[in-house]
């Protein structure tokens, strides 16, 4: 399928083309480029122009560049003044030409899982385009829009932030028909002098991009609900004020069943992953489906076989010995903040390992919490879920504060790096244990997940 011709891309960006080519998608990663895609030579930690030749050698149809690299055929380039600006122009053009109902999602916790859940719920009802991975920033949003097929029925856009003033421009770029705030929690506190209230205002700014008569879905359970309510129109949650209200929740080992009151009456649904936080996100997903004109009962049926993405609560069964129960590994290693760690610990505490097996948490530093970071790490020791755990192992200088705050009989190993923690895994993990791994992305907790899974191959 052709997504961009050379002529269309030049017209959208005001750029220059010297050849005739057609691209089926855009990519920023020369390592994963596929034949027929356009490589976008962004300047970030490294200059993407250094990888244009490699991308074209791998079969890229063209490259979006601000200069022609040495040895590269100009006929295979779209030359613009600035690559980021050119990408944004392609995003605006992609948004303008699609007939899709656009749904934008932000929140301190659960953006990517909710995005994946919503795409899963909508896919049976029409062609659904969604952001890949966590492409939710100043280049991720326009990239997602530029990759949107003109004939898509639904488009799901994820919008993130780590400083004030970031969300509104991205929301105006996406021009959603439906916008959602999953939750507000103490994340990126070091960038917000006014604390969680400032975070709530930043999250609510997603509603500034709504199309006329658009739907603004917000979490009515958070302590900053009043700030969201100033702009939001459709509250969801357990709260009596919620239009979409969760009235019953039963968490099993592999799924959670729910009941909710909705504008169309009572609705029962099942989510194919355990955890109360997934149930609440699913309720928001169904509210978004309703606002986008999709069939809600059909969307609810689709949620029954949804599973979380890698690193965001996906479970793995890891056999360690013949005829012994496997390890129940919960991979939540992609990111962490106080709210998401609390939800993950609740999930771990609710597991039922076999007799004599244990519930074990391996936690890495939660980053970008500013001066409150040490206290917020130590405060994790007071969470109710901690009383149901057997061992807590910690990674990183900030998690040392949790390590010191834990009761001695619960205190496990502490290391400064995830690599150092992997050395303890063979003696730390036993058959039947439930093991949850979580930490901020820079802590590389995925290395520990892979270390546990590798125990099965020993």
UniProtKB/TrEMBL annotation:
Its EC number is 6.3.2.10. Residues 26-67 form the Mur ligase N-terminal catalytic domain. GO terms for cellular component: cytoplasm. Involved in cell wall formation. Catalyzes the final step in the synthesis of UDP-N-acetylmuramoyl-pentapeptide, the precursor of murein. InterPro entries: Mur-like_cat_sf (IPR036565), Mur_ligase_C (IPR004101), Mur_ligase_C_dom_sf (IPR036615), Mur_ligase_cen (IPR013221), Mur_ligase_N (IPR000713), MurCDEF_CellWall_CoF430Synth (IPR051046), MurE/MurF_N (IPR035911), UDP-N-AcMur_synth (IPR005863). It comes from the Bacteria. Belongs to the MurCDEF family. MurF subfamily. GO terms for biological process: cell division; cell wall organization; peptidoglycan biosynthetic process; regulation of cell shape. This is UDP-N-acetylmuramoyl-tripeptide--D-alanyl-D-alanine ligase. It catalyses: D-alanyl-D-alanine + UDP-N-acetyl-alpha-D-muramoyl-L-alanyl-gamma-D-glutamyl-meso-2,6-diaminopimelate + ATP = UDP-N-acetyl-alpha-D-muramoyl-L-alanyl-gamma-D-glutamyl-meso-2,6-diaminopimeloyl-D-alanyl-D-alanine + ADP + phosphate + H(+). Keywords: ATP-binding, Cell cycle, Cell division, Cell shape, Cell wall biogenesis/degradation, Cytoplasm, Ligase, Nucleotide-binding, Peptidoglycan synthesis. Residues 326-440 form the Mur ligase C-terminal domain. ATP binds at residues 107-113. It is found in: Cytoplasm. It is an enzyme of class 6 (ligase). Residues 105-289 form the Mur ligase central domain. GO terms for molecular function: ATP binding; UDP-N-acetylmuramoyl-tripeptide-D-alanyl-D-alanine ligase activity; UDP-N-acetylmuramoylalanyl-D-glutamyl-2,6-diaminopimelate-D-alanyl-D-alanine ligase activity. Its main location: cytoplasm. Pathway: Cell wall biogenesis; peptidoglycan biosynthesis.
